[in-house]
Design a protein that fits this description.
Keywords: Signal. The chain is mainly alpha-helical. It has 2 helices and 2 strands.
């Protein structure tokens, strides 16, 4: 979850950096040629970049702090997680993982009443009572 959040924030950082780089030449041009919408969009993106800058810096520090630990976790647990994912074909038929008092983690299969009926309606007769031949 932290990896996907870091990946998401890295994408946001790249987009913000690209927008900032493209905004520098735009500032060098005269503002007379820009429409009100263009100036508004530039101001909005600049404000967004300024608001996100502290969060991105915090995220960068978090990535530096937890990055090595997550890498070693994935190196050790990655093959086991891949094997588990290969065995489980449909995650929707299982309950949420549950931790027992002794520390064991179990994942129970849902009961048949909880599962969605994938077979669809069994009765193919029209609702008016007539049978097609």
């Amino acid at each position: 979850m932290v990896i996907s959040y870091i990946s998401y924030m890295q994408r946001v950082l790249i987009i913000c950096a690209a927008l900032a780089v493209t905004a520098i030449p735009a500032d060098a041009e005269e503002d007379d040629g820009k429409s009100l919408m263009e100036r508004g969009a530039e101001l909005f993106l600049e404000g967004l970049r300024q608001e996100m800058e502290p969060t991105i810096e915090d995220l960068r520090g978090l990535a530096e702090q937890f990055g090595p630990a997550l890498q070693s976790f994935m190196q050790e647990m990655g093959p086991a997680l891949a094997e588990l994912a290969a065995q489980v074909q449909d995650w929707s038929v299982y309950e949420a993982p549950e931790m027992l008092p002794n520390g064991d983690i179990i994942i129970r299969k849902k009961g048949s009443q909880d599962l969605p009926d994938e077979s669809g309606p069994q009765d193919d007769t029209p609702s008016d009572g007539l049978t097609d031949i």
